[in-house]
Amino acid sequence: MRILAVDDNPIIRMGLRTLLEGTEGVTSVIDTGDPEEAVAHVLAGWVDVVLLDVRMPAMSGLELLPRLAGGATVVMLTHTDDPATVSEAIAAGAAGYLVHGALEPRAMVDAMRLCQGGSQVVSGVTAGAPSVGHDAAPGPDPTVRSLLSPREAEVMDLVADGLSNGEVAQRLFVSEKTVKNHVNSLFAKLGVTTRSQAIVMWLRRGHGPGRGRPEDPAKTGPDLGPHALGRAGVHP
């Protein structure tokens, strides 16, 4: 994967090169703070994925985005986590939106690869609080579940129940390798790198045991949800 980092801050660009160079799947990392130079790199066919900042003095990333999206996969990488800005970027052609510090380098590359494949990844963004009446109990946050495919969400529900990959495979009648692939994919989409992080995010957003899916009639015995973090050290 050939990556172009576009940011007006040279320290951030240098940091991105240091983080991403040598990461598996990355063949080259170039950078620029000049919007016109970024366009030239993309038009020359030298770039697969553009990491684009939102706020730049010469031209904002949102203004530059349409000029880049036709020739490369554009993923916003910024400190701005405003949901309205995220929506504007996605509408303008961004394939993904990542907030600085939300992902480790390998997970960032996985997220970019998903975006290249047609998936949409939004990571590290604080969802706007839903409008809830005083008498209403807050329900599951749909913005998190919508990041995943229906099958990935089903897998994540079972992981949050405390099931291992092997147990999830038995429950869904698929191979353990298939489950592992789903888990790796949902990690990238949720912007997490460990099983425990995924479980905590899922449960905090109101998903997991008994939420957002029908109860499994075959499941007997006590709810496994409270024990989920006890198995969090098992990585996919």
UniProtKB/TrEMBL annotation:
CDD domains tied to this protein: LuxR_C_like (cd06170), REC_NarL-like (cd17535)
Q: Which PROSITE patterns match?
A: HTH_LUXR_1, HTH_LUXR_2, RESPONSE_REGULATORY
- Which key words are in the record? DNA-binding, Phosphoprotein
Which BP terms in the Gene Ontology apply to this protein? phosphorelay signal transduction system; regulation of DNA-templated transcription
The record places domain Response regulatory at 2-115
Q: Name one GO molecular function term.
A: DNA binding
Instruction: Mark the residues carrying the PTM 4-aspartylphosphate.
Output: D53
Q: Residues annotated as region Disordered?
A: 205-236
Domain HTH luxR-type: residue ranges: 141-206
Recorded protein name is: LuxR family two component transcriptional regulator
Lineage of origin: Bacteria, Bacillati, Actinomycetota, Actinomycetes, Micrococcales
